[in-house]
């Protein structure tokens, strides 16, 4: 059941949120009695409130059933209606609430004085919240999706973003195969694909493809959203196309995620507690490493124990070394290193919230704590948050304030998971007495062998990688309800955050073995101070004219200022493992000194939004916004953005009025607009300098160029088209949403690396364009649909597919292409007609059975044993041809069960495990453990039909199509079961609500490709138990 208290407060009550509510205005019409020839009427009046908290509902439609005569409630929920002095039915309808039909008999007029409406969980999803205004989805021309907080939490309790990607096909969290389930790694998120080029690396720490996040009407950061307590969330709306995002202008080309938190409910003091208790279990199923016998056999075949110089003494040494390891294996040594750094993490989160108040003032005070223990020892993420929500209303004025204070502490392991995966299984972890040696193997002096470090040695030292931050956010909103149809709103928000990052490596760490004592050990501290503020002033108008013409308009002004200061330094020369404070350091690392940088981003905008609906059938939305931003060139500081949307509610047409029992919605819509992107560096258009002490002379300290600016840098612009349909029929049992979209980003703005001769490492430039087209669809069927009985069974499937390509690039990104070709595993290229997700490599005809060498296919179709990088072509694409989620949910009188499974079909992947741990194993890599296929699937005289080349420590393998594989996956993304206890069972306990839930996430993953995932931090499976109590 949707949490009606939180959902209604945030979505439906104008007093609780920063978004604007389209006010319904008082409407009058001819008396229906005139239609049957009589003028005898009576005046009926009353008041409409929310059944849960008694708050007046504004804009409720009060109609005489079967006619178009009606009225709408005013700011206080009051209404007056002229009705015939004869029996009739009066209907009360409001978005997100159950429709009420009351019979008027002539003698029961007093029963209409107080009407209480209850929320409808299904209809709550029919409200579009943009963060600036709200609109009924039926009259909205944009493409959007809204999900309630309880709906998101049923999918998973990690964070709202993980749940969003399960419920909506356009929202995608890109899999991070390097950092897996690390709780401190921020995800890469896309809505309908990429719109920007980031280059081989993003120099400034910003993601140009990240969507815009709006929290309670104010812009916020990805990390804030990740840390947000899910129990506070009332709803999340994803805005996808130009009509829905254009109100945010040049910041919205990547889509917008609008988050509304719960507002305090009216009534007596109410105390609620919600807790989540979970287990995180490492998923190591993708690792396919050799055991001790296999690794020793592989080393023998690779020639590790064969002297190539003919030195008999060295051969004896190598024979003894092999025999020593063989003896250890025979004694039972077969160490499983992967189990050493991992644990079963216990995660717990708690949220306590007290709320109450009356008509004039409502209050809410909350405290939450969370501790996410990752599956690697030494990794965790702790959050502590307090919030105070106040709403005060007097007459036509309302004041709202939300204060949030937060503290964050994170820890990451000092030794990555890959170091344990590299350790050979024929070594013992510890000595017989439990002590740990620094080296698993240290070669004799004068040999060419490499020392092998024991990862447990570095892990047990006094190393740490920690981050702490403390900050607050205060958002204030003033609203003046000038008329029933006119509202003024002003809001101001300020955010302050101080962050302190510290990393420390002990002087006993193995990486300092060859250094002088005065250079051993390393301490690094970075301090970040951020101060952001944002303001917005807007006028909202909404009026129904002559019963057929609905007009909505919003006009406003917005400004923001974001300032960040970074201080940092490193120190080395520590003499003792236990003395970790920087005061024990001897000096700075050679060539380094303390650093300071400052970033200032300012933006201002003017916007207007207009909406018109004729007879609730024909819909028009228009948006215009003028944006100015400090990060662009002096000649391009301001930019215009616009959008237009059209919609047609076919189910409202007369030729379908006799089928309203079958079609509840049949709507087509389309939009076009040009949103932009501001996710770039503050000073990318300006040349910046840094001081250098070694250039000091009698004239002062010298400076050199730090970043080369581009004063002609223009805004990145995306023309966005969308055509879609929303269909609901068979008594709300079948819901279909379909969108086809195409986007043209022109010009692109990219941060690319440059040649060393330029004196800078990167530069920002405009070049070329990117064209994307795709579709997305959602189908939900309810074979059993009895909402009034609390019984409902849903089956759902969503799907999406998209393609992108570059155009008009020319040789602008030639440097990126050169770096990709020289990189060992770089498979991305930037060419006209090429895809951002294409895999580039030389085609392979396989391994020649006679010689064991790879045979390549050149561009002209001929064959050659010689690899030529100029023969690179597109050999695959990481973008799946089809992906989505299959799901089913069952609700039965408080009990609910849900299962969601993700599928990906038709994409390809460059298998780095085969490329780096089966082939390309050099003289140093051979001392690390490897994939089993390096032993069993390599070419030899006895295995001429092998897929991989013969074992060699000196031969390098180049990128070819032999390592590109079709990838199809099926994942158990979420399985949940819960129960909400009925009042009759908890009344004796003096509880208002009691609920329990168990959720399992990422329980299994089946893939057509076996590749190592979670290189530096493993993936995890999670099980969470949740408890909710309201007193």
> Radius of gyration, rounded?
32 Å
In whole angstroms, the N-to-C terminal distance is: 18 Å
Please name the CATH architecture of the largest domain.
Beta Barrel
Beta strands, count: 50
- The poorly predicted ranges are 1-39, 199-204
Count of the domains:
2
Oligomer description: single chain
C-alpha geometry = elongated
CATH class term of the largest domain: Mainly Beta
Strand proportion: over 45%
Secondary-structure-based class equals: mainly beta
Q: Please give the largest β-sheet.
A: 22 strands, antiparallel, barrel
CATH homology group of the largest domain: TonB-dependent receptor, beta-barrel domain
Mean model confidence by pLDDT: 88
Pfam families: CarbopepD_reg_2, Plug
Keywords: Cell outer membrane, Membrane, Signal, Transmembrane, Transmembrane beta strand, Transport
Family: Belongs to the TonB-dependent receptor family.
Protein name: SusC/RagA family TonB-linked outer membrane protein
């Amino acid at each position: 059941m949707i949490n009606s208290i939180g959902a209604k407060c945030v979505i439906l009550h104008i007093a609780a949120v920063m978004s604007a509510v389209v006010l319904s205005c008082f409407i009058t019409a001819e008396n229906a009695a005139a239609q049957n020839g009589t003028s005898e009427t009576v005046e009926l009046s009353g008041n409409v409130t929310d059944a849960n908290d008694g708050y007046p509902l504004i804009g409720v439609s009060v109609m005489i059933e079967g006619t178009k005569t009606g009225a709408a409630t005013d700011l206080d929920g009051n209404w007056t209606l002229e009705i015939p002095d004869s029996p009739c039915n009066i209907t009360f309808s409001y978005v997100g609430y159950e429709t009420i039909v009351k019979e008027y008999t002539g003698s029961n007029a007093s029963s209409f004085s107080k009407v209480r409406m209850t929320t409808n969980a299904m209809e709550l999803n029919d409200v579009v919240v943009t963060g600036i205004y709200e609109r009924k989805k039926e009259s909205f021309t944009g493409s959007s999706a809204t999900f309630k907080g309880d709906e998101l939490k049923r999918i998973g309790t990690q964070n709202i973003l993980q749940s969003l990607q399960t419920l909506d096909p356009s929202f995608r969290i890109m899999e991070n195969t390097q950092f897996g389930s690390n709780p401190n790694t921020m995800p890469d998120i896309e809505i309908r694909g990429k719109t920007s080029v980031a280059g081989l690396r993003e120099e400034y720490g910003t993601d140009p493809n990240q969507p815009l996040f709006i929290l309670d009407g104010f812009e916020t950061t990805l990390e804030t959203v990740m840390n947000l307590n899910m129990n506070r969330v009332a709803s999340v709306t994803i805005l996808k196309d130009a009509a829905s995002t254009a109100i945010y202008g040049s910041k919205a080309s990547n889509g917008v995620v609008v988050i509304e938190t719960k507002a305090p409910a009216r009534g007596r003091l109410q105390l609620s507690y919600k807790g989540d208790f979970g287990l995180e279990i490492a998923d190591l199923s993708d690792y396919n490493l050799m055991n001790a016998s296999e690794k020793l056999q592989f080393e023998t075949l690779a020639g590790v124990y064969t002297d190539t110089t003919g030195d008999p003494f060295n051969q004896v040494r190598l024979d003894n070394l092999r025999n020593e390891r063989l003896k250890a294996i025979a004694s039972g040594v077969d160490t499983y290193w992967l189990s050493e750094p991992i644990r079963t993490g216990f995660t717990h989160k708690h949220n306590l919230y007290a709320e109450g108040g009356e008509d004039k003032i409502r209050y809410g005070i909350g405290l939450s704590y969370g501790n996410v223990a990752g599956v690697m020892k030494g990794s965790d993420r702790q959050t502590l948050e307090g919030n105070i929500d106040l709403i005060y209303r007097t007459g036509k004025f309302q004041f709202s304030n939300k204060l949030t204070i937060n503290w964050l502490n994170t820890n990451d392991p000092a030794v990555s998971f890959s170091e344990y995966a590299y350790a050979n299984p024929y070594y013992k972890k510890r000595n017989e007495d439990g002590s740990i040696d620094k080296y698993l193997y240290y070669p004799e002096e004068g040999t060419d062998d490499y020392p092998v470090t024991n990862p447990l040695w570095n892990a047990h030292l006094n190393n740490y990688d920690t981050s702490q931050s403390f900050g607050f956010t205060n958002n204030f909103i003033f609203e003046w309800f000038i008329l029933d149809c006119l509202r003024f709103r002003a809001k101001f928000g300020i955010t302050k955050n101080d962050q302190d990052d510290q990393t420390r490596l002990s002087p006993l760490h193995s990486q300092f073995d060859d250094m002088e004592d005065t250079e051993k050990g390393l301490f690094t501290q970075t301090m970040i101070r951020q101060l952001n503020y944002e303001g917005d002033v807007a006028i909202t108008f909404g009026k129904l004219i002559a019963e057929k013409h609905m007009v909505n308009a919003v006009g406003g002004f917005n400004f923001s200022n974001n300032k960040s200061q970074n201080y940092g330094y490193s120190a080395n020369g520590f003499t003792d493992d236990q003395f970790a404070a920087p005061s024990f350091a001897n000096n700075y690392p050679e060539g380094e000194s303390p650093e300071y940088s400052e970033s200032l981003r300012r933006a201002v905008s003017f916007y207007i939004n207009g909406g018109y609906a004729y007879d609730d059938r024909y819909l028009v939305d228009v948006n215009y916004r003028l944006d100015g931003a400090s990060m662009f060139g002096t000649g391009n500081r301001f930019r215009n953005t616009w959008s237009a949307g059209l919609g047609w509610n076919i189910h409202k047409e007369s030729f379908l009025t006799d089928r309203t029992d079958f079609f509840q919605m049949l709507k087509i819509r389309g939009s076009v607009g040009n949103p932009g992107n501001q996710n770039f560096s503050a000073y990318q258009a300006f040349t910046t300098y840094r001081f250098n002490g070694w250039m000091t002379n009698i004239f002062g300290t010298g400076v050199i160029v730090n970043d080369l600016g581009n004063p002609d840098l223009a805004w990145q612009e995306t023309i966005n088209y969308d055509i879609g349909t929303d269909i609901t029929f068979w008594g709300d049992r079948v819901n279909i949403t379909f969108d086809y979209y195409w986007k043209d980003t022109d010009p692109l703005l990219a941060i690319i690396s440059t040649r060393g001769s330029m004196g800078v490492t990167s530069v920002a430039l405009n070049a070329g364009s990117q064209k994307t087209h795709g579709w997305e669809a959602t189908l939900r069927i309810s074979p059993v649909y009895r909402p009034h009985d609390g019984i409902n069974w849903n089956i759902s499937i969503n799907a999406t597919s998209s393609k992108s390509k570059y155009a008009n690039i020319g040789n602008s990104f030639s440097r990126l292409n050169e770096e990709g070709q020289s990189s060992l595993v770089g498979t991305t290229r930037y060419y006209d007609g090429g895809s951002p997700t294409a895999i580039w490599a030389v085609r392979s005809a396989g391994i020649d059975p006679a010689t064991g060498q790879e045979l390549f296919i050149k561009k002209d179709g001929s064959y050659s044993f010689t690899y030529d990088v100029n023969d690179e072509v597109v050999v695959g694409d990481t973008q799946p041809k089809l992906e989505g989620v299959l799901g089913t949910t069952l609700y039965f009188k408080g009990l609910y069960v849900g299962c969601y499974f993700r599928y990906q079909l038709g994409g390809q992947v460059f298998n780095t495990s085969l490329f780096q741990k089966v082939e390309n194993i050099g003289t140093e890599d051979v001392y690390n453990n490897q994939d089993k296929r390096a032993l069993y699937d390599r070419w030899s005289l006895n295995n001429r039909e092998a897929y991989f080349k013969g074992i060699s420590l000196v031969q390098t393998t180049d990128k070819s199509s032999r390592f590109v594989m079709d990838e199809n996956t099926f994942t158990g993304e979420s399985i949940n079961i819960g129960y909400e206890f009925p009042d009759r069972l908890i009344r004796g306990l003096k509880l208002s609500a009691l609920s329990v839930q168990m959720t399992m996430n990422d329980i299994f993953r089946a893939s057509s490709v076996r590749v190592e995932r979670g290189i530096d931090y493993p993936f995890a499976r999670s099980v969470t138990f949740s408890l909710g109590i309201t007193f």
